[in-house]
Amino acid sequence: MTQNVKAADVERVAELAHLKLTPDEAGSMLHDLNAMLDYVAQLNELDTSSVAPLSQMSELEGASGRPALREDAVKPSLDRAEVMSQAPETDRAFFKVPKVIER
Amino acid sequence: MPSETSKPTTFVQKPKTFSELQEGIRSRRVKAADIARTYYERIERTNEQLNIYLSLTKDRALEQAARIDDAASKGDPLGPLSGIPVGVKDVLVVRGAPSTAGSKILKGYQPPYDATAVARLEAAGAVLLGKLNCDEFAMGSSNENSAYGPVRNPVDPERVPGGSSGGSAAAVAADLAVATLGTDTGGSIRQPASFCGVVGVLPTYGRVSRYGLIAFASSLDRVGPFAANVRDAATVLSVIAGPDASDATSSSASVADYAAESDKGAEGLRIGVPEEYFAEGLDPEVREQIEKGIAALENTGCTVKRVSLPNTRYAVPTYYLVATAEASANLARFDGVRYGHRSPSSATLSDMYSHSRDEGFGAEVKRRIMLGTYALSAGYYDAYYLKAQKVRRLLADEFLRAFADVDAIVTPTAPTPAFKLGEKTGDPLAMYLADIYTVTASLAGICGVTVPCGATKTGLPVGMQVLASHMNESTAFRVARAVEAAKV
User: Fold this and answer.
1) Could you tell me if B478 and B378 lie in one domain?
2) Do B372 and B407 belong together in one domain?
3) What is the distance between the alpha carbons of residues A75 and B249, in angstroms, rounded to a whole number?
4) ipTM for this model
5) Is B171 found in the same domain as B217?
6) Most CB atoms closer than 10 Å: which of A1, B105, B134, B426?
7) Which SS3 state, helix, strand or coil, does residue B87 take?
8) Within a domain: residue B326?
């Protein structure tokens, strides 16, 4: 197995993904990421220099018909109290979170 | 209700058909409320062993059943699913009912709205029994990634039901629901349907609204039905399909009466068989069953011809880049702020995010978030994500070319029958290869049906995948009906 991903990369990607990995998790993640990147490397066998990327079905002609766009009109949204009741911490109007900047 | 006559090692039980149940309700010989109660008794007896339902919606079910019985007694018109007991995969939200997506991070979450597909089922008269177990955030091929424990296969409880919609497939196989909804991102309806010996439908991308589906990979995710027979699965698709103002990717294409379409027979249809789906890695007994199914289609009056899909072997790597990239973005919403788990002791917002996510997500979800984040990160985007999107177009084009010559393509649904619990959990790549025959249709956005096609010598079900071009579900149902009728 090639070692394209190093321990420092795992740390950097975990930070980007807001995951705090334990040392055990980071170790197995290093192994799994390298194994998966080795596996997907076979895509390089294909010459795609003149191929346009396909990111969603609406880009493929005739694939899913005209998308159903709604009228641009104001409609009632979800009940605020019902939504806030599911949050870990609120003051009923806003979601509350720990402080953003440490001083 | 059928009596309990199954052997001790199997929980398989054939549900009654929609028409059998509805004839009873319409003629007032049977009450929808009694049917619902009977199903709850069955669930109570077997759920501990099979772990199919994560939660029950009893009050809601009995209220709906009472409405149906009331309408029947007044002679009011009844919807196409009136009184039919259904279950839905736990990634579909139901107002006021727990919706965990098989994850610890959503434990206790009670969503404030209904998924469109669920609302349409109930508007058609279906009685929602409860929420079905699945792999966490629909990520898995064996249902072993559920934070609430694996589902066991009713055919053989030592084996997996497939995944990620394992509970949806197993519920129909064990007659703990007459029809269910699941979701399919890379094979998550088709592969478990095949493992459990039931019918599963992959609708065309955009055919069924994704509103209220807890997103995994938005360009791939589809909602679709399971049932014990093709005609009933087709009936459910007609109910849940069609445009929805709440999902901008839902299609305005007209929806057919797929059950009636499936009655038209398969005679004269041109069936393509791609050699790439019969290569190394295919279990010989699965191959034998699928070849019998193909012979049965020929006997029905179909023309069978070889087609070639040479890029098929690139589908799994393409899928795992596209799906994980989209997942890493979609799962950013689980941050301990608006719903779900929040880690109790974090001094800063940033720590709260990462601790909540580390405590809430399971190993496979983290693995996919990490791969997806890596593939999207600066310096790697072109090499991985963009490359995968280009290969995705090659794979879609290849299918479109094949469908110029044939009406449907048939393949095995999965390379093997249901495997044993624990057999593949140590090797993520081996697990991903369980989806080798299903991911290409996912990437291409086309539709399909998996239909039982006999069993191995030890009685494990084999499924045949019938694929058709975009918005051409009618053809897939006609071919699947012919395979079903042949009793391979």
Assistant:
1) no
2) no
3) 20
4) 0.94
5) yes
6) B134
7) strand
8) yes
Name which of A38, A60, A103 to mutate to probe chain B: the one with the most chain B Cβ atoms within 10 A of its Cβ. Answer: A60
- Does B9 fall in a domain? no
Q: Indicate yes or no: CB of B320 within 8 angstroms of CB of A79.
A: no
Residues B212 and B288 in one domain: no
Q: Among B266, B261, B264, which residue's Cα sits nearest to residue B302?
A: B266
pLDDT digits (tens, 9 = 90+) for B306-358: 999 999 999 999 999 999 999 999 999 999 999 999 999 888 999 999 999 99
E-assigned strand segments in B57-159: 85-89, 127-132
**Mean pLDDT to the nearest integer, B242-264:** 95
pLDDT digits (tens, 9 = 90+) for B355-400: 999 999 999 999 999 999 999 998 999 999 999 999 999 999 999 9
Partner residue facing B249 (CB), from A58, A86, A95: A58
| Domain housing B365 | 318-382
**Which residue in the set B249, B341, B392 is minimally distant from A54, CB to CB?**
B392
* CB contact (8 A) between residue B321 and residue A44: no
Q: Which of B89, B194, B251, B474 is catalytic?
A: B89
Is residue B399 located within the same domain as residue B304? yes
**B305 min Cα distance to partner chain A (Å):** 24
Tell if the CB–CB gap between A102 and B347 is shorter than 8 Å: yes
**B25, B71 contact by CB (below 8 A):** no
The answer to whether the CB atoms of B248 and A67 lie below 8 A apart is yes
Q: Which of A82, A57, A7 is nearest to B441 (CA)?
A: A57
Note whether B294 and B409 are same-domain residues.
Answer: yes
Number of separate domains in chain B: 3
Domains for chain A: give ranges and CATH numbers.
Answer: 1-46 (1.10.20.60)
Is B89 annotated in the active site? Answer: yes
Report the residue from B248, B353, B377 with minimal CB separation from A13.
B377
- String of DSSP letters for B351-404: HHHHHHHHHHS-HHHHHHHHHHHHHHSTTTTIIIIIHHHHHHHHHHHHHHHHTT
Annotated catalytic residue B219: no
| Chain A residues within 8 A of B321 when measuring between CB atoms | 40, 43
